[in-house]
């Protein structure tokens, strides 16, 4: 069985959530099929993986001209199965069995996702809708990474999808030098790591840590964050440093208005760290004693949740078992058996 796996969004430097998912799929398919039967499509001329054939292309997933040209490139490869780990896949239905994974439909749901200019934002939504609609309509199976995303896909296209969660454990040793660099003491600070887009709702974090004098320091990792009277911006960190920050934090704070899943929740739990998260559908799917919820519009609720986190200890249980690779592999086996 010839497999084509789309790895054009694999970023081995920044190791994004989609990159980690693509790495999981690479491992999955290479364990299930012979290397010579797997073709990996990449935008990186230097990329290699085991003994699999890597096919370079300069066609980008979200360039609309490239989107149509990419269909013919895949058709010429003649795989029996093509898997797109993101929602830009094939423009047309074909004999190729196609699986498309959707992580979220955030661009349709978050207000002003692309721009505060109404016309610009609307045009960009229409642009992405065109690509995503064709990609999902041409798919034989759609994978959604959460029930929330599955519901969003159904509301968009009235198509059911196969829900398979992601897994995200940072399997590296901790580099505690970052603690010394910024004079941080273990279990004496809260942590946020991620981007600063509006849907991340970071203003409520700045406000609560600047106005509530009984809270310890908030450490913020990532690009675009501002430092304040009780917030420390450590910038972009390595996986080794991030692991140390997760393990050393009182809790990870996740105040988003919308997410399709929530990889940092799992990363925190693997580090035996509590999570303080907004009460949104994707996060409510994490039914764990180690997560404290709050209304993302209510600063007082957030303050109470943060104080609660300071008193709590992480509770060891089997919650993470359903996200481990063994269970996810079984779900993908079930999916592929259908097609």
From TrEMBL:
Domain Glycosyl transferase family residues, every copy: 179-308
A GO MF term: glycosyltransferase activity
One family name in Pfam for this protein: Glycos_transf_1
CDD domains with a match to the protein in the record: GT4_MtfB-like
Domain of life: Bacteria
Keywords carried by this UniProt record: Transferase
InterPro entries to which the protein is assigned, alphabetical: Glyco_trans_1
Protein name: Glycosyltransferase family 1 protein
Native species: Pedobacter chitinilyticus
């Amino acid at each position: 069985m010839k497999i084509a796996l789309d790895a054009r969004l694999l970023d081995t430097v920044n190791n994004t959530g989609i990159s980690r998912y693509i790495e999981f799929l690479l491992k999955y398919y290479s364990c299930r099929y012979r290397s010579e039967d797997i073709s990996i499509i990449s935008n990186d001329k230097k990329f290699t993986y085991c003994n699999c054939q890597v096919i370079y292309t300069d066609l980008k997933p979200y360039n609309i001209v490239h989107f149509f040209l990419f269909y013919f490139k895949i058709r010429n490869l003649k795989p029996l199965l093509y898997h797109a780990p993101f929602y830009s896949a094939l423009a047309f239905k074909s004999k190729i069995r196609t699986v498309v994974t959707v992580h979220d439909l955030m661009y349709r749901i978050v207000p002003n996702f692309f721009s505060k200019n109404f016309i610009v934002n609307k045009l960009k939504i229409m642009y992405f809708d065109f690509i995503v609609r064709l990609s999902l309509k041409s798919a034989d199976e759609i994978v959604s990474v959460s029930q929330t995303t599955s519901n969003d896909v159904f509301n968009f296209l009235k198509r059911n999808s196969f829900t398979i969660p992601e897994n995200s454990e940072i399997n590296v040793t901790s580099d505690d030098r970052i603690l010394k660099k910024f004079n941080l003491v273990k279990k004496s600070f809260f942590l946020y790591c991620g981007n600063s887009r509006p849907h991340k709702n970071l203003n409520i974090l700045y406000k609560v840590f600047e106005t509530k004098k009984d809270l310890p320091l908030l450490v913020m990792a990532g690009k675009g964050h501002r430092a304040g009277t009780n917030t420390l911006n450590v910038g972009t960190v390595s996986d080794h440093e991030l692991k140390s920050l997760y393990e050393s934090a009182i809790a990870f704070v996740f105040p988003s208005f919308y997410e399709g899943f929530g990889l940092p929740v799992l990363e925190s739990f693997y580090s035996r760290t509590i999570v303080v998260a907004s009460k949104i559908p994707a996060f409510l799917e994490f039914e764990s004693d180690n997560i404290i919820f709050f209304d993302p519009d209510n600063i007082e609720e957030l303050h109470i949740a943060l104080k609660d986190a300071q008193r709590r200890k992480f509770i060891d249980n089997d919650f993470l078992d359903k996200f481990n690779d063994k269970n996810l592999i079984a779900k993908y086996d079930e999916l592929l058996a259908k097609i």
